[in-house]
Amino acid sequence: MPSKTLQIPTADGQADAFATFPDGGGLHPGVLMYADGFGIRPVLREMARELAGHGYYVLVPNLFYRHGPAPVIELPEHIGEEARPAVFAQLMPLIEAHTTERVLSDADDYLRFLTTQPEVSAGPVAVTGYCIGGLLAMRTAAAQPGQVASVAAFHGPVGADGPDLFSKLTAEVHLGHAEGDMTFEALGELNQALDAAGVGYTSEIYPGTIHGFTMSDTDAFNPAALQRHWDRLLPLLGCTLANS
């Protein structure tokens, strides 16, 4: 897949981003992909390329660009349990500084940039995200109901903003939860809130998973769950994006 590093103009400066899209020219539906808290790194580029191979232009912004270009913090090649405390000690101040106001301002800029790229077709886009990026994806879809046709979030704290967020959603939704993050009772409550808001959705616990199951550079990685993620994500995009 062709790929490049781009600079997205924002209200607070320039956000660096990774973009990838199918070879051979033509126009492709746009997908905004929010990384997990560890940010843009080889595994995220690999996942973006995998998605682009199915016919999409995928844009992965550096969420923490205000603190520097990616990688904002130094990461080990494999983020094992021993490394996590030191990594999170650096990450948490960045996550806490990334307020809802910043998220929504950035989302406006990211979508404006994505939809004006020469390789991106006209029409609605999709948003997907992992971990904290899943919550950002949901916030983006809720704030841009006319532009975001579908949203998918994996092992993300998607209920953090409560039912008020769900009531603003018009996008089709898939939520893939880690078994280690969500009880079946909590899943039932979340799904009831989505029902009450009239959201079109699927929401399920991926069996045998812990938080971070899609990320192959962590101890949480679960290959079967990563495949399940593709099996849910690709049909969602195919049904909601023009020219898919």
From TrEMBL:
Ranges annotated as spanning the membrane: none
InterPro entries: AB_hydrolase_fold, Dienelactn_hydro, Dienelactone_hydrolase-like
UniProt name for this protein: Dienelactone hydrolase family protein
Highest taxon of the lineage: Bacteria
GO MF annotation list: hydrolase activity
Keywords (A to Z) from UniProt: Hydrolase
Domain Dienelactone hydrolase: 17-237
